[in-house]
Amino acid sequence: MYFLTPGLSYEASVSNTETLSLTASFGFALHGGSDVDTDFGLFPIFEGQFRHYYNFDRRSGKGKR
């Protein structure tokens, strides 16, 4: 069973070709059935990524964004 969960994402430029991306969201878990107790939980999820973009000049030369 899947649910859409709320979250926030932010990407900030560190230099001309590098960014830092941060994400915070909540996960939802549900476990149960007709013969067992039903349990659920909300779990915080944090993620960070460092991104390096290497082909800006080449794409710009081809007229792409």
Q: Any idea what the radius of gyration is?
A: 20 Å
Largest sheet: 3 strands, antiparallel
Number of domains: 1
Mean of residue pLDDT? 85
Q: Helix/strand/pairing class, anyone?
A: mainly beta
Residues in β-strands, percent: over 45%
What is the 3D shape? elongated
Extract low-pLDDT stretches: none
Oligomer: single chain
**Straight-line N-to-C gap:** 38 Å
Q: Which strand order does the major sheet show?
A: 1-2-3
Question: Could you spell the SSE succession in H and E letters?
Answer: EEEH
Number of alpha- plus pi-helical segments = 1
Classify the helix fraction into a percent range. Answer: under 10%
* Total DSSP E strands: 3
